[in-house]
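@channel sequence for tomorrow's demo:
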Amino acid sequence: MAKKNTNRKMSKIAARAEGAARTKRAQANGKRATAAKPVAEKRLSAISAAAKVLADAGKPMRAKEMIEAASQKGLWSSPKGRTPEATLYAAIIREIAAKGKAARFSKVERGLFAATEVA
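structure tokens (generated this afternoon):
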């Protein structure tokens, strides 16, 4: 007869049940189950920083200008990328293609983008 493997990982449901039981035991003993972790401030992505820069500027800008403005305002800095403006340009084009009129950006002319008012 085959030996049953008892070293399997728990299923997600079993893990949740185990965690809930552990929390209930800790609460019954008057203890906190886990220590509260400090909430880290989330850093903006390049495209979110660009949307903020465009909205604040109130005029159309090129990707390179948005990167420079975001860097100057301290919203975003490139993590060792050599062409962050090309990455931002591609991300903006993808957002416009995917979201259409709901996108945060609109293309004014080749390489020039403006902020859209999204409610």
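heads up for whoever presents: The helical segments are 12-28, 46-57, 63-73, 84-99.
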